[in-house]
Amino acid sequence: MEAIFELLGYQYKASLNWDIYIPLLKGYNKGKNILIKKILFIKNNGLIINGLPYINRGIIKAKIIKHIRDKKQICFKSKKRKGFKLKKGHRQYLTKIKIIYIEF
Fold it and tell me: Which InterPro entries match (predicted)?
């Protein structure tokens, strides 16, 4: 069973027991379960259910595994022959969730 759902303005593809990295969920602790109700698409053994825009009776249950930071992204700017160099780094905060079950 596969599903496409929307969470925090992004769309994700999921299946049972998949680990997915999403933007940080503030206020949720490790080990807590979350319910996702904005499901766009479900595929189950050849049966396809498409929401317009969401499936009314569908629900996805996920468990928060941990909060982490992504690897560093480096932005380097320079101007030739001027001696100007600028190096910036950024690490995005992420939440790792595990899909427990998909129901429709």
Answer: bL21-like, bL21-like_sf, Ribosomal_bL21
Count of domains forming the chain: 1
pTM of the entire predicted model: 0.83
In the block, which residue shows the tokens 């825009």? Answer: 53
Q: What is the CA radius of gyration of the chain?
A: 19
Q: HSE, CB side, 13 Å, CA atoms: give it for residue 28.
A: 20
Domain that holds residue 56: 2-103
Integer CA distances (angstroms), 51 to 8, 10, 83, 101, in order: 18, 16, 56, 19
Q: Would you state the structure tokens that stand for residue 57, as one six-digit string?
A: 């009776």
- Report pLDDT digits (tens) over 33-44: 999 999 999 999
How many CB atoms sit inside 10 A of residue 64's CB?
Answer: 18
